[in-house]
């Protein structure tokens, strides 16, 4: 069973980057989008850095599809709420008893831009970088191995959890349990569905822990990684340049805001 | 209650085509074993009998009810399904309450559900544990409890998914007795199993599946004599059939007494 992951396997330069380089690149986009002043800075980062990277990584279609699904409802709701209900402000359009305020719309645009930059950065990372590769790269650079396992196991357990929930649903429906209809019926169906799911998951976790220990998971000493990560001198330099870029963006943001 | 499967095809949302135009007619009161390798389409087929899956193409009718036109809860009154893993359904605090859950869902009164539960628990040998917590039972007992939970619903069709897996000799004997009792009551019994010896002994008809198709369908002795189809379905013949073949005896004995008869005839 595959792990819960958005990763799309493409033969692109981004896919071939060391996960730490990709993490530094994403970190730069994130910091630049949030630290640089001006309402349009996050949009500039999104349009000039994140989108071209998604296109270069050949994940533009899934990237846009996922980003729009999340950002569009947020943008519409924040624009309506902040635009219509901003306290005071300058009305620019009258809609019956309500009016759209200029300050509210600017605030909504700023919030949407930040969400776009943050979400776009993380989406790009998720679409172009294998989670296991990223966690192994972090572990090789000092992150606790147990943390690596917890993150990866959590991602792997999500589809198992979903499959088990579906099986339990089928088993209870086969015994005549109605799971569709009014709210009362749905609430009554919760107990027969959740108890086997929770108990089954506890048993599953215990069995996994025993299986891990039986294979020397907690043994101290060096371990061999079966996943060989590519790296190069150029990438190492690139990572430091990006870290420098992040610091520069923060300083520039502070200076320009004064 | 009969089951009519007509040109049934099914494709999972993932795109996996699990069944390809399957036709099958099971008469009321028949005992049918469905055999085949993993991924042959056995479970996909039987999940259509109570509406858990709906045909992509074709139709399935149980006692004249088109499964596409009824909810799973409605179909549950006609076709009981015993899942392979009992832990996917147990949630009540006592064994008795667990068995009464199905009859309650079907609208039985408390007295009727209690009586049905008591009968079903006696049938599977768990009457003494009726007040116990289901999770205090061993896995083999929990499997019997899941079986009792379906038996108590008194459905005309009973589908058993891998009934003998995880059972010791006593458990298998108990399940064998229950299958025979269901047959004697005139209920339609369908089992999916990799236990060919169990199927050979208790099921008169065998359906052999591979790759979402039915390779062979007929009396158990006939199907178990079709070596090529069994190989294609990755199913080993029952031990008695293999032993008879190794001794050069003609025929496919499914029960010990049939084997002894064949051996006696060969000596004569």
Provide an overview of this structure.
The complex is a heterodimer of chains A (258) and B (268). Helix content of chain A is 72%, strand content 3%. With 258 residues, chain A is mainly α. Chain A has 2 domains: 144 residues, no CATH class; 71 residues, no CATH class. Chain A has 9 helices and 2 strands; from the N terminus they run H-H-H-H-E-E-H-H-H-H-H. The termini of chain A are far apart. In chain A, a hairpin with a 2-residue loop joins strand 1 and strand 2. In chain A, helix 4 packs antiparallel against helix 5, helix 6 runs antiparallel to helix 7 and helix 7 packs across helix 8. Chain A has a two-stranded antiparallel ribbon with strand order 1-2. Chain B has 268 residues and is of the alpha/beta class. Chain B has a domain of 31 residues. In chain B, 38% of the residues lie in helices and 22% in strands. Chain B contains 11 helices and 10 strands. A 6-stranded mixed beta sheet of chain B has the order 6-7-8-3-9-10. In chain B, helix 3 crosses helix 4, helix 3 runs parallel beside helix 5 and helix 4 packs across helix 5. The model of chain B has no long low-confidence stretch (mean pLDDT 92). At the A-B interface, helix 7 and helix 8 of A face helix 3 of B.
Write the layout of secondary structure elements.
The complex is a heterodimer of chains A (258) and B (268).
Chain A: H1 13-16, H2 19-35, H3 41-56, H4 60-85, E1 91-95, E2 98-101, H5 102-128, H6 131-140, H7 145-173, H8 183-214, H9 233-257
Antiparallel strand pairs in A: 1-2
Chain B: E1 3-11, E2 17-26, E3 31-36, H1 42-46, E4 57-62, E5 65-66, H2 72-75, E6 79-82, H3 95-105, H4 110-124, H5 139-151, E7 157-161, H6 169-184, E8 188-192, H7 196-202, E9 205-210, E10 213-219, H8 220-224, H9 227-232, H10 239-246, H11 256-267
Parallel strand pairs in B: 3-8, 3-9, 6-7, 7-8
Antiparallel strand pairs in B: 1-2, 1-4, 4-5, 9-10
Helix pairs in contact in B: 3-4, 3-5, 4-5
């Amino acid at each position: 069973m595959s792990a819960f992951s958005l990763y799309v396997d493409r033969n692109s330069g981004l896919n071939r980057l060391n996960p730490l380089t990709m993490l530094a690149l994403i970190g730069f986009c994130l910091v630049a989008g949030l630290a640089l002043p001006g309402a349009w800075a996050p949009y500039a980062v999104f349009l000039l850095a994140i989108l071209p990277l998604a296109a270069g990584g050949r994940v533009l279609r899934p990237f846009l599809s996922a980003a729009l699904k999340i950002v569009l409802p947020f943008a519409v709701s924040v624009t309506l709420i902040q635009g219509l209900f901003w306290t005071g402000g300058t009305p620019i359009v009258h809609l019956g008893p309500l009016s759209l305020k200029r300050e509210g719309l600017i605030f909504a645009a700023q919030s949407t831009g930040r969400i776009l930059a943050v979400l776009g950065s993380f989406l790009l990372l998720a679409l172009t970088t294998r989670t296991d590769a990223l966690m192994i790269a972090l572990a090789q650079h000092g992150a606790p191995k147990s943390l690596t396992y917890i993150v990866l196991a959590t991602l792997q357990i999500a589809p198992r959890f979903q499959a088990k929930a579906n099986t339990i649903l089928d088993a209870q429906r086969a015994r005549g349990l109605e799971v569709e209809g009014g709210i009362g019926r749905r609430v009554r169906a919760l107990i027969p569905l959740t108890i086997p799911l929770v108990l089954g998951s506890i048993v599953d976790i215990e069995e996994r822990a025993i299986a891990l220990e039986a294979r020397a998971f907690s043994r101290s000493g060096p371990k061999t990684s079966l996943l060989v990560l590519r790296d190069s001198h150029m990438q190492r330099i690139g990572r430091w340049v990006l870290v420098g870029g992040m610091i520069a963006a923060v300083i520039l943001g502070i200076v320009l805001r004064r | 209650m009969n089951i009519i499967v007509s040109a049934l095809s099914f494709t999972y949302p993932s795109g996996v085509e699990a069944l390809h135009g399957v036709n099958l007619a099971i008469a009321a009161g028949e005992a049918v074993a469905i055999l085949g390798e993993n991924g042959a389409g056995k479970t996909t087929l039987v999940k259509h009998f109570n509406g858990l899956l709906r045909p992509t193409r074709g139709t399935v009718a149980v006692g004249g009810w088109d499964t596409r036109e009824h909810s799973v809860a409605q179909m549950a009154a006609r076709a009981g399904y015993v899942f392979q893993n009992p832990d996917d359904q147990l949630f009540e605090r006592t064994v008795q309450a667990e068995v009464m859950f199905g009859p309650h869902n079907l609208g039985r009164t408390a007295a009727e559900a209690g009586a049905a539960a008591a009968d079903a628990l006696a049938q599977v040998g768990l009457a003494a544990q009726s007040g116990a917590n289901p999770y205090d039972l061993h896995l083999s007992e929990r499997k019997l409890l899941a079986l009792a939970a379906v038996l108590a619903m008194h459905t005309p069709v009973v589908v058993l998914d891998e009934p003998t897996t995880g059972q010791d000799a006593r458990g298998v004997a108990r399940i064998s007795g229950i299958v025979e009792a269901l047959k004697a009551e005139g209920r339609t019994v369908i089992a999916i199993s990799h236990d060919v010896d169990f199927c050979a002994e208790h099921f008169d008809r065998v359906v052999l599946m591979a790759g979402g198709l039915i390779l062979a369908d007929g009396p158990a002795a006939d199907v178990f004599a079709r070596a090529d189809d069994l190989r294609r379905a990755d199913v080993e013949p029952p031990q008695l059939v293999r032993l008879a073949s190794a001794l050069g005896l003609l025929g496919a004995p499914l029960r010990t007494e049939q084997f002894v008869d064949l051996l006696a005839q060969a000596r004569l």
